[in-house]
Amino acid sequence: MNDKLKESGSAPPAWYHSGLAHVWLPYAQMKTMRPPLAVARTEGCRIVLADGRALIDGIASWWTACHGYNHQHIRAAVERQLATMPHVMFGGLVHEQALTLARRLTALLPEDLDRVFFCESGSVAVEIALKMAVQYWRNRGVRNRNKFVAFRGGYHGDTAAAMAVSDPDIGLHDMFRGHLLEHFIFDLPRDDESAARLQAGLERHAEQLAAIIVEPLAQGAGGMRFHAADALRRLRALADRYELLLIFDEIFTGFGRTGAMFACEAAGVAPDIITLSKALTGGTLPLAAAVARRKVFEVFWSDDPKKALMHGPTYMGNALACAAANASLDLFAREPRLQQVQTISEQMARELAAARGLPGVRDIRVRGAIGVVELERIEDLDSLRARFIAEGVFIRPFGNVVYLTPSFTISAEELTALTGAIRRVLASGT
Ligand SMILES: Cc1ncc(COP(=O)(O)O)c(C=O)c1O
Q: How do residues 142-159 score in pLDDT, each as one tens digit?
């Protein structure tokens, strides 16, 4: 255990010290990191620590807990499912929760996005979408279309193929450069100039390309950057012109985060494949999906066994996770979630505006339930994070951004506590 971990202030529970030496934490230099916080439980929009402190959560557990924590309706659905059947393999077997979820998701998605392939994490959903795209061409007898166009500022996950279509400069996988498949990374076509550069690239490389992959409307882990629907319309037009598949990675943006149920719906652009995860289960259980349009699925539908999609995660279509996702969709249908997103959006825009002009603040932007304060730089992320915790909030800046992605059920007072903490902490310098 590193020295800072040993220095942990209040006495944590026994499980903390006995177990901490045996876990490997994400995105962290374990030797020098500050001690992680011991969490006892969650409640609404709060994370209750083992030492009794309750932090107002500004991040909703990496953007998943859209209904707040421990929602009674999801809990009851998972408990019922647990008593009946927690899991059964999806090879040769199907069950009510997964099939109901597939039907409901496809009813919500635009156009003929109507075949759902389930898996357990966002990165794997992206891997599957990429595999679908490459095999789409192979099944059509075209062997060399196996490259992708992706975008600066994009992030699609931490597995190898997902890393290879993420922006290599965002710092998450720098050391794997040269070991990953190389694809083509362009600026998003935000204006005529960048659109012309992209088109020239497509013109040059179209014969090697399987698909374009993009996070629609909001790029998350690559810097919380937004773009207009027009960029997506340009992508759709270019994909059609060069006969490429268009993949929307809505793992961050799906389920209301940008204001509409899906960003593709808000943009009025339908992709050929869409990936979903994060808020799919309301932040309770791991589940993800790659959903394909009919024209993609039809290329796999054949008498030839070699044309089948050879993928099958062990926990695919997990019944508990699907029950949670069905319950989460019930909540979207019966509670005013998208209205809440709109109210959160307006409040964040009002309250974060007060941080404009604070030292080092470069930009403030809000879209849906995503509020961002971009700084010139953050010298010491760890200590900035600790200052938020001292304020009684859980806010986790990265790169040069401090951001909020709260649960949609957060109260106005809790949200004010979050925006107030950002203003106070930034006012005292980063
Ligand atoms: C847009 C996007 N795609 C893919 C992923 C990877 O998802 P997971 O962490 O579940 O593998 C993320 C995670 O942040 C994401 O934001």
A: 999 999 999 999 999 999
221 Cβ closer than 6 Å to some ligand 1 atom: yes
Identify whether residues 77 and 66 lie together within a single domain. Answer: no
- Cβ within 8 Å of residue 236, ≥6 positions away: 246, 269, 270, 271
Measure 278 CA to ligand 1 centroid, in angstroms. 8
For residue 341, is it within any domain?
yes
Total tally of structural domains belonging to the chain: 2
Test site for ligand 1: of 277, 370, 405, most ligand atoms within 8 A of the Cβ: 277
> Helix (H, G, I), strand (E, B), or coil: what is residue 236?
helix
Q: Are residues 324 and 383 in the same domain?
A: no
Q: Among residues 313, 334, 355, which one ends one of the domains? A: 334
| Residue 353: per-residue pLDDT | 97
The answer to whether 303 is a known catalytic residue is: no
Instruction: Tell me the pLDDT of the chain averaged across its residues.
Output: 95
Domain end marker among 275, 301, 334 = 334
Q: Are residues 345 and 286 in the same domain?
A: no
Output the CA 424–ligand 1 centroid distance in Å. Answer: 30
Say if 16 falls within a structural domain.
no
CATH number at residue 371: 3.90.1150.10
Ligand 1 close to Cβ of residue 156 (< 6 A): yes
Q: Does 1 have pLDDT greater than 80?
A: no
Rg (CA), the chain: 22
183-199 pLDDT, tens digit per residue, is 999 999 999 999 999 99
Residues 61 and 100 in one domain: no
Which of the four pLDDT bands, split at 50, 70 and 90, describes residue 171? low
Give the CA distances from residue 76 to residues 210, 317, 320, 391, in Å, rounded to whole numbers and listed in that order: 43, 19, 11, 34
Residues 227 and 376 both lie in one domain = no
In a domain, 262, yes or no: yes
Which H/E stretch holds residue 371? strand 370-375
In a shared domain, residues 41 and 138? no
- Other CB atoms within 10 Å distance of the CB of residue 335: 15
Beta strands in 190-324 (DSSP E): 209-214, 218-219, 225-226, 245-249, 273-276, 288-293
Residue 319 DSSP symbol: H
Ligand 1 atom 16: the closest Cα is on which residue?
252
Evaluate if residue 4 carries a pLDDT over 50.
Answer: no
Could you tell me the pTM of the whole model?
Answer: 0.96
Strand, coil or helix: 11: coil
Is residue 397 one of the residues assigned to a domain?
yes
Structural domain of 377 = 37-70+336-427
